[in-house]
Amino acid sequence: MRSCKTVEHSRPNRAFLLTAFQRAAGEIALRDFMHVSETTRLDRLAIDSLGMVEVVGHLEQQLNMATIPDERLAGLTTVGQLLDVVEAQLG
Questions:
Q1: 75 vs 12, 29, 42, 49, CA distance in Å?
Q2: Domain limits of the chain?
Q3: Which residue in 38, 35, 36, 25 sits closest to 87, CA to CA?
Q4: Are the CB atoms for 39 and 2 separated by under 8 Å?
Q5: Bridge-partner residues for 41, per DSSP?
Q6: Which value, in Å, is the radius of gyration of the alpha carbons in the chain?
Q7: Which fold has domain 14-90?
Q8: I need a surface site. Which of 11, 22, 38, 39 has the fewest CB within 10 A?
Q9: How much is the pTM?
């Protein structure tokens, strides 16, 4: 008799999350963000606050994750800090 194994989905690594951010930002702002790194300051991306909310929403959908509370996004200054929040939300 065969045993059934549960397949666990691994969490995305940082490189995957960065690429997901770059693509989401590109789709929302209609520009190339593939040069963006984790140390890039969010205020240097020329994406307004509404656009950043859309980027985060796109990431939430793409990564099939729960909505990130607004208070966890307040005060973030770099892409890396945003990815920290995304990673924590993914568990």
A1: 24, 21, 10, 12
A2: 14-90
A3: 38
A4: no
A5: 78
A6: 15
A7: 1.10.1200
A8: 39
A9: 0.87
